[in-house]
Amino acid sequence: MRIRGVVAWLAALSAVVAACVLWAPASWAGTHKYRPVIFVHGFSGSGAQFETQARRLTGNGYPIGLIESHDYDSLFQINTREQVYAGLDARIDRLLAASRADKVDLLAHSLGTGLMQEYLRSSPQRAAKVAHYVNLDGSSSADQPGGVPTLAVWGEGSPDRQVGGAVNVRFPDQSHTQVVSSEETFAKFFEFFTRRRPRTTDVQEERGNIRLSGRAVLFPSNAGADGTRVEIYRVDPRDGERLTRRPAAVFRIGPDGSWGPFKARGDAHYEFAVVWPTSVHHLYFQPFRRSDALVRLLTSPPGEGAAALMESGPHHANLVISRQKEWWGDQGVAGDSLKVNGTELLNPANTPRSKRAIGLFAYDAGVDRVTDLGAPIPQFFAQPFLSGMDVFLPAGRRPISVVATPRGGGGERDVLTVPALPSDRHRISITFDDYTG
């Protein structure tokens, strides 16, 4: 069963291209030196792919209200290209009016680069509102789209890819999505936008409380999870258990999926619970460290979407583990490690470098209480950027420990521990940072 078929029901929904929360204090309107920045994702992507770069931008002086993502359904079942473009027109006009900037800076990845090249060429009026365009590991072009000054960043793959007349930069050791989130890419586009080098390429902790905001959306359409409720709890990092019975914040989700802002601690661990009528989807992240308006809570209605492909039951837990940087299980010491309760999940069969896997689905396939990592689960491995593992995780009092040792991190480990909730009533998603340090 393919995910495209599972999500076909979304075709009946109206097009949703929602705005992120705009934090735009009057103190900088019309006076700030930076232009608004808009990111356009690729196939099955979302604004989450630009979260790290947004944190780096704010760490270098950008107001958070100037940084947005233009989310859309990359399957084009609930929106057309023309609707995506019309929504982008409205977003640009709104940001220009709020900031009083002359133009915006635009970035796109993968499928999004083809869309944005077409968009910039569609009319001189559209191109005239864009100061700079960044083409991230996507479509080649004979010239700069719409005549807009262009930076093209390429990762692994053919060295013949280029955008004619643009600044073409190559990182052959970086994978497709890694190109979006890497600090090397950040340094290049920051200088391209501002004509100076960034003060830092690290994600530095923000002093005092931070504010979090974003959207609860259906994967992969990015339609709002209308009718749900988002509850936010601070949790104990040792076991993932909630520290209070009552949530720190509750948001009712409407058609656009927006929630927030929520005042949080940058060093704390939080659970975001998307409450459906018959089940709860629990989402866990590493400490955010900085204010973030691009938090995406990817979910689906019970029994639909990707969740419908995972076998559930009262005796085992199901996990979805993601990171905006591909998991490499076939590169030896140059690759990644991901252990769940001490068992290494990654191997050459389920996460070869060529698979470009970002999202990993781990559950008891066959509900036989047996872990079998000899081959990936076919219905997930057949999808772009996904893989699946047959892992038995007993539900019960013993929490689930997930330990990632990312490549290039000098052995640094990222640890998230979550409750082992039974999968017949609960779903668990874990998101690791795509950077180290």
From TrEMBL:
<dbReference type="GO" id="GO:0008374">
    <property type="term" value="F:O-acyltransferase activity"/>
</dbReference>
<dbReference type="Pfam" id="PF02450">
    <property type="entry name" value="LCAT"/>
</dbReference>
<feature type="domain" description="AF-1763-like C-terminal">
    <location>
        <begin position="322"/>
        <end position="434"/>
    </location>
</feature>
<dbReference type="InterPro" id="IPR029058">
    <property type="entry name" value="AB_hydrolase_fold"/>
</dbReference>
<dbReference type="InterPro" id="IPR049036">
    <property type="entry name" value="AF_1763-like_C"/>
</dbReference>
<dbReference type="Pfam" id="PF18067">
    <property type="entry name" value="Lipase_C"/>
</dbReference>
<protein>
    <submittedName>
        <fullName>Lecithin:cholesterol acyltransferase</fullName>
    </submittedName>
</protein>
<feature type="domain" description="AFL C-terminal">
    <location>
        <begin position="209"/>
        <end position="301"/>
    </location>
</feature>
<dbReference type="GO" id="GO:0006629">
    <property type="term" value="P:lipid metabolic process"/>
</dbReference>
<keyword id="KW-0808">Transferase</keyword>
<dbReference type="Pfam" id="PF21768">
    <property type="entry name" value="AF_1763-like_C"/>
</dbReference>
<dbReference type="InterPro" id="IPR003386">
    <property type="entry name" value="LACT/PDAT_acylTrfase"/>
</dbReference>
<dbReference type="InterPro" id="IPR040664">
    <property type="entry name" value="AFL_C"/>
</dbReference>
<keyword id="KW-0012">Acyltransferase</keyword>
